[in-house]
Amino acid sequence: MVAYRCDGCSNEWARPVEDDLDVHDVVRVDLPNASLYGEVWQVEGDRVQIRGTGGAWLRWVERWRVVVH
């Protein structure tokens, strides 16, 4: 589970970590200061490589940051 807390209103919630990611899934990546959108390019254990729209970028992120769209 990934836990979230809103600093402004103190609300808390949780969501499960995605465990069924497949190559080409469309995803959102929750980073500390931004959200990225792209598709899964590779999955390796606890990390996932995400490809930006049109191949603009490739970035490895921790699996717990990924949300399937």
Q: What labels describe this entry?
A:
0% helix; 69 residues; globular; two-stranded antiparallel sheet
Please report the total strand number as a whole number: 7
Order of helices and strands: EEEEEEE
| Mean pLDDT, all residues | 91
Give the percentage of residues in beta strands: over 45%
Unreliable runs: none
Strand count, sense and closure of the main sheet? Answer: 5 strands, antiparallel
With strands numbered from the N-terminus, the spatial order across the biggest sheet is: 6-5-4-3-7
**Radius of gyration (Å):** 13 Å
Large-scale geometry? globular
Structural class: mainly beta
Measured distance between first and last alpha carbons:
18 Å
| Helical fraction | under 10%
Number of helices: 0
Short description:
The protein has 69 residues and is mainly beta.
Give your account of this protein's structure:
- The structure is a single chain.
- The two termini are 18 Å apart.
- This protein has strands at 2-5, 12-15, 26-30, 35-44, 47-52, 58-62, 66-68.
- The chain has no helices and 7 strands.
- A hairpin with a 6-residue loop joins β1 and β2.
- The chain is globular and about 35 Å long.
- By secondary structure, it is mostly beta strands.
- The strands form 2 sheets. The protein has a 5-stranded antiparallel beta sheet with strand order 6-5-4-3-7, with no helix packed on it. It has a two-stranded antiparallel sheet with strand order 1-2.
- 0% of the residues lie in helices and 54% in strands.
